[in-house]
User: Fold this.
Amino acid sequence: MNRWTQLTGTCFLGAVLAAGAPSLGAQGSDETPAALVEEVRTQLATELDDLDAFDIDRWQREVLIEHGTLDPLLIELERLEDDKSHPRARRKNAQWVRGLLLARQGDLREALDLIEDFARGSKATLEAKLEKARLLDALGRESKALKEYEEFLPEITDELLEAAVRTRVALLKMAQDSEQAGALAEFAGAEGRDPGLRNRAAVVLGLIGRPADAMELFAVNGVETKRFRQEVRVAEWAIRAGAAETAQDYAWRAVSSAKLRRDRHYGLTILVEAHRLDDSLAALDPGDVRVYHILDFLWPDTGTDAMDGLLFIGVLVLADWTDVWDVGTVEFGFGE
Assistant:
């Protein structure tokens, strides 16, 4: 049984409170946070001796439920770090846990200071090195993060983790060197290359600001909703690349592939945006099936849906699509 669970499965902290311990509730923003009661402090110190078994999620959850803040737990962890009467391993583990909790609540700089100190030395764990690199990355210190990632990559044995770190390393390198991004596009686009590799490379190129390369490389191969998402992705890349006709083509394909109403709405939004790239929206032939499709979908014959009406008005305002509105009024009877 996990050390946190005691007394026939009741949460240890809850059991202490139920037994009549002083209330540990939040004391208000202007008051000093209540300290953890002695029993909970003892339990915390004991569990910190085995970091592999330490359940940080449960401690975080239970303290937040009781206090509405992590301050009491953070204060106790800091006290344990500084108290030299405790074993060194326990004090270092308290430092690690406090760093993780600070990172979770967004105090990245203070968290980095703690994690860096914990990870210092030749005996630093892979988990500590990874957390340090992630914090550097999140703080925008990309060169240092890249160096950290590359240093511990050979130590990774988990295939999924290795793939994730290698992907991040590739992104950081290509963000710094556009030639490497071009090399990736050329490599992935070579004849006979695996379609899955091509598409993964396209996603990476899209993420680092190479939408033109991404849309050229990506091959749509899904069905139904998956196909809709892929076609929308290519249309969005094309919009970012300023390729109006490609954007219009893939946006219309996405509308046709959509199986859900919300997906069709979104596909139509992308379609309108694609036509705005080259001011071709109002110039569409009134007989074009896209005109009928948009009008008939946003303002159906069965009655005006409130949300559809708002979306249709939005199309008119954003695109100045007065010509199409006239066509819809005359030929289909909308707006009468």
